[in-house]
Amino acid sequence: MKRVGLLAIMILCWAAVSGSFSIPNLLLGAIVSLACFWLVRDRLAMERLPIRPIALTVLFLLFLKELALSVMAVVRTVLKRDMALKPGIFAYETNLTRDFEVTLLANMITLTPGTLSVDVAEGRKGEKAKGGETTKPTGRILYVHALDCADPAALRRGIAEGFERRIREAFA
């Protein structure tokens, strides 16, 4: 039943994007949506993510806020006479564990002007300490290109306290 609802949403999105709610266009949207379902049929049986609607709304609003602020910051930077930029790539170690969450974080970083997720790597595996205990493994590492990477610690802190925290709250 949930797939029928998802199919209906996909058809409506198709019509909204194409700008036509005519019967032939809705049928074409249904065909394209069914083809998409067929292409990802093995992924549709993936684990159910616990979703918190209010936290998800807060995450979306945070993304819109960060999007607007970063657009203004990039425009301000481009319009300045002296673009004293220090572009660079920094490593951001995330504590998110699910593939979906890491992908969402990487996409939110990429969609925010001035930053771009370049790569995702596995963190260190648990290593043996002197006492025979295994150290805690680290999460995944995102490599992020920033238009102005003068203070990578502040950029890391902003991601951790913003997007990552809200993603964890929305899908906890």
Query: Which structural category do the helix and sheet elements fall into?
Result: mainly alpha
Which second-level CATH architecture of the largest domain applies? 2-Layer Sandwich
Which topology of the largest domain does CATH recognise?
Alpha-Beta Plaits
CATH class of the largest domain: Alpha Beta
Task: Give the percentage of residues in beta strands.
Answer: 5-15%
Question: If you compute it from the alpha carbons, what radius of gyration comes out, rounded to the nearest whole angstrom?
Answer: 20 Å
Q: How far do the termini sit from each other?
A: 24 Å
Overall geometric form: globular
Could you name the ranges where pLDDT drops below 50 across 5 or more consecutive residues?
none
Largest sheet report: 3 strands, antiparallel
